[in-house]
Design brief:
322 residues; globular
Length: 322
Amino acid sequence: MINILASTHLYSTAVMLLLIIALKALIGVFVTQQPLAFFNFYCQRLADKVNKTNNSARQQNISGLIAILVTLAPLLAILWLFETFIEVTWLWHGLLLYFALGNIGLGKINKHIARELVANNNYLAKQATSSLLLRETDKLSTLGISKACIEMQILRSSQQLVCVGFYYLIFGPLAALTFRLLLEMHYVWNIKIFRFIHFGAAVNHIVKLLQWPPSRILSLILLLGTVGQNTKLCWRLTRGKYFRIGNDLLLHILALSLEIKLGGVAMYKGNKLRKVSFNDQARQPQATDIIHASKRINYALYICILLVMMVAIMSYANSGQG
């Protein structure tokens, strides 16, 4: 463990992560377009070409797996080979990490949506959420928009920030970008949409497995945020989910900490999907709960950043002693 902390590579990696997060936050004030929008579009067109709904379920499963390999293998090989021609390695790594990290301004977007809901501007709130949510937003009530925004922020923060940062620190920028590309495929080929039930099964399973370790770290941090708020009860109700694959744990802890109900029925491309509900006995979320949820999620992310800073300081101190 000491040898790992004494590594100059760990120190430089942690510092780079902190710098890119700061840069992302600064640029996000002026630029809202996400850098992987083109890859998202490519995944949509690829699915249109190879996902034939008249094929059997097994054929669609195989097609989805092949689509992952055909997309990632050449792209990652090119990026890996291209690094040998780069003189300034840290700049290349920073660029890959910049593309891998997701939207840092989700809290700001959700606050804007909450203000529109409080002002009874439901149409504008739906317009703001339509690009962020997979589910249909046209018929969502204030309650539905509030619930969807809360769930979206915790899940995307976990996936696009915590998970990406985790794999960058452990395995490097190419691993972080690989996870993010898999995540984009998962968003486009989501099994909640009927036509992707079989085609998106492979990437859905891969992403769920890869999410498990870092999402458990974020879950524990969220649980610590319930200190003084029936933490023991929260632990007792959620501990059975710690070793299950999926996002149920994050949603359950957040629902308990906010004392609201999350999950339940949602519409995806005309199909009603009954998802697991959390904290059933609590009240339904309101627009103000979006603000409260955003604060809790942001505090958890700040603690994650603090942990990265501590890793950088300990690594620097140990390497200096060496």
